[in-house]
């Protein structure tokens, strides 16, 4: 595909649609700006201003004023979209996939602008950083779980290394939970949904939540308490025994205190989360067509997660600026059991145990004047992870596989970012961050061996395997990386619009692979490929971007566009290969250099006092510049490798939406519809696995009743019943193909895949009462 020709044709279609019903703003979805709804009396009036915090300036900024590609949602829009987890926002923005990997429930598999990962291995750092109340989540586990009582979610596209550090080469997702209020208030919600119109598929999903907030000491001490409960009876039907599959039960308790003492504000938040249920709802696509929700597994599997998250934010006005300190803590523990072969026979089952704890602290000082904005700060992060994996593969071995890894991870950094106005219209954007990162790891190869646990410290990392004396047990090692992440750009403002351009560099951390299942190949092939190191190296990303944000004086029409070129050096990939000795062999390597080119546009148009249209489009073209590993799995490195598609890069995403308010005098009816398309994309580096395209339609209608604070809603998600999976990994086992041929131990996905399914069509009802 030639991107310029493709882009020109699709861009022409985009702007033709803009002329008819212009498209959704770069930081807006159908109810993004309803934060001022109570003051304005109409949700649509709030669309004139959206405030975001992702720039870390002294004051929150209007998204239309910042030279950055952002999609933001406030509390009202998240509620209107019936968002229950971050994954729901995948179908609200261009070039964004906020999926979970599916093999381990709640584990993020995020990708923005084609930069993402395809793994549940906890030692792999993300390309999209997730921050909750300003606290960085150190790994992907426990990220895509239920959300409630949110203040806002901001999706920042493109590298954000200056302000947010490493592992944000694709972008950053900022989740801000609700703050205590100055007045006594409460909100209670109950909802039920499920595949009610799709006979023979699964059960219902029930949710209740409640929040109360208000002053303890007026204007001085405020509180907030909330709780959430969800019981999912399982969306899918397991054809193996006719039972519902995908069952889950989740409980959340959250508290917050805020103290205001003159120029000093202190805010503490504590969140307890627990969830348990079934293992992955895996479809084997050697047995079932990929456009169905059919699955048949002999092992139900399970997961059990417990997470404590806390933050303490202190803000002090000093001189012309504000000093902010954010301390964060997180403790995560999880166990899983999954039917990896996704077959109605015992072929490949695996269990895991993971423990993680982290502390972090960011201290920054921000100043804003008429001529410049300046933010300087320091950052500290310390994390420990321990991971045990167990594999049972009766067709391959009567012995059980044990192994995994443990790692201590420390990061220190310092940063400065600013914007200086050369004239009233023209300003220079600049920033830089220095980081030092150290990882010390002990890895036990996942091989047949006596029972052991990395979490308990009983797995050996030295010596030879007593069951396989020709193999080592594992290794211990440490590595350090230091670098500078710069940013430089310009912004030109005119009227209520702007154009901007910038270059920025980001890094994705190097590290270690906890899931080494082929010890011999790792030590004789992989380690030499990394220059003799047990670790893989960091990934460097340079992004060149030009964009514009245009709006009319009354804010009724906005159009935001951005075009970018992203150059990736030392691309980190988890190379999945079918293995006749371990089921699946997974190596993490710096496989290639690549270029991604893209275009995005979002806009909105308020056509009347009661009607708003939105839309968005994203185009991506990808290519390898140099390939240094046999990613095609054909035994040689040649043009066949360079011709492959990069994983996680859908060429096209687009969407349209509408919100309408009908005034009934003492009540009103608010209707919302959103249609989003995502193109198919390769899932594995060898392109054997892929995720098919989907057109996702969501809709809801809400009656704000004459009783103040009481509303009733009907909603539908994925109304077109599109099939999506969290992954598409080839396996050595498979059922008969459509032509009746059985190909065991084949590397092609037709012979069998682990493809954990996402939910299809859901219809629901909800009642909400707030005061």
Can you offer a commentary on this structure?
- It is a single chain.
- This protein is mostly beta strands and 771 residues long.
- The protein has a single domain (3-770), classed as TonB-dependent receptor, beta-barrel domain (Maltoporin, Chain A), CATH 2.40.170.
- Helices cover 6% and strands 52% of the residues.
- It has a 22-stranded antiparallel barrel. It has a five-stranded mixed sheet with strand order 3-9-10-7-8.
- The protein is globular, with a radius of gyration of 25 Å.
- The protein starts with a helix and ends with a strand.
- Residues 1-40 and 734-748 have low confidence and may be disordered.
Summary tags:
Maltoporin, Chain A; 5-stranded mixed sheet; disordered N terminus; 39 strands; 22-stranded antiparallel barrel; single chain; 6 helices; mainly beta; 771 residues
Short description, anyone?
By secondary structure, the chain is mostly beta strands. The chain is built from 6 helices and 39 strands.
- Chain oligomer state: single chain
Low-confidence parts lasting 5 or more residues at pLDDT below 50?
1-40, 734-748
Instruction: Output the radius of gyration.
Output: 25 Å
Overall average residue pLDDT: 88
Number of domains: 1
Structural class from helices and strands? mainly beta
* Coarse shape: globular
